[in-house]
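Entry:
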Amino acid sequence: MVKGNYVKKQTLSDKAYFYLRDLIVSGDVKGGELLTEKKIGEKLNMSRTPVKRALTRLEQEGYLKSVDGVGNIVRELSVKDLADIYELRIALEKIAIKSSINNISDMEISKLENDLKDILEKKQNLESISSEYLIRKDEEIHMLILENSTNDYIKGIYSNIKSQIDRYQQEAYTLTDTTVESTEFHLEILDAIKRRNLEETTKILEEHLKWSYEVLVKEFIKL
């Protein structure tokens, strides 16, 4: 019998997978770009076999598409994919908040509120704020809801689409600046959570996510 926590050792294909996924999510590798086993293997100093497994996994998760006679191409971001992801995201977060609203501590809320108010103050003073920081704060709000939920199945499903959400979010901060509007939405959500008002929190959360989706769609249509 093995005692203690079992930690899965990261394989070469895992390393290749996370390396490539991070490049795609961050936008360093754009939609339509070709990924070849040979070049990736040379870059990571590994054989083609683990690279091939990583590419297959990325294709299964919707990051790549295999084109006969061409190879593995990074899938373009699309309005259809965006709609599907946000439909699922809204449903999951609305369910998660039901059990998490009473588990989120006042200390967690207060810290995030202070960070968000600081963002608004910097915007008002025309100070620069990195997109990485804004994305991180945005993520913290929503992960606070997910991680405090008692529904482990929701956490599992959300983790499967999180990197796809991150990819669209990264693109959003590149395409448009809605920092003030988004931050104000987040402050309203935190205020409703602080008052443990489930109905109001759910309403604002859904409004925020639908607004976020509509902003993204408008920007994608322009491309």
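The chain has two domains: 12-74, 79-222.
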